[in-house]
Amino acid sequence: MPKAEIYNNGLLAGYLEKKGPEDYVFSYENNYWSHASLPSISLTLPKTQQIWRSSTLFPFFAGLLAEGVNKDIQCRLLKLDERDDFNRLLKTASEDTIGAITVKEMQE
């Protein structure tokens, strides 16, 4: 299943994985988790627990995706299914994102 590394200001913060059609998991990386001084990546994914599960792509990550005309252009140029938000995230959020978070696809 597809998996991504999540970086906060260039520091590996965790992993995002799509385990099934309605099964998404975000987990904080052990070193990031153990440093109390490092912030949560989002208010909706606080470091109160190390592993988070959701039946949909976490709204925080969905918020990193382009919308409207920009979405249409990305999907056409990269030949992506516009309904596959997880794959779009992997292919488009590795650079030039708004804010400190970047997403890098992990190769299997």
Structure report:
The protein has one domain (3-105). It contains four helices and five strands. The protein has helices at 30-34, 59-62, 68-78, 85-92; strands at residues 3-8, 11-20, 23-28, 51-54, 101-105. The chain has a five-stranded antiparallel beta sheet with strand order 4-3-2-1-5. β2 and β3 (23-28) form a beta hairpin. It is globular, with a radius of gyration of 14 Å.
Layout of SSEs?
Blueprint: E1 3-8, E2 11-20, E3 23-28, H1 30-34, E4 51-54, H2 59-62, H3 68-78, H4 85-92, E5 101-105
Antiparallel strand pairs: 1-2, 1-5, 2-3, 3-4
Core attributes:
about 110 residues; 4 helices; single chain; 5 strands; about 30% strand; five-stranded antiparallel beta sheet; globular; alpha+beta
Q: What would the principal axes of the Cα set say about the shape?
A: globular
Low-confidence stretches: none
Strand content: 25-35%
Give average pLDDT, whole number: 92
Q: Quick gist of this model?
A:
The protein is an alpha+beta fold and 108 residues long. It has helices spanning 30-34, 59-62, 68-78, 85-92, and strands at 3-8, 11-20, 23-28, 51-54, 101-105. The longest helix is centred in the C-terminal third of the chain and has 11 residues, at 68-78.
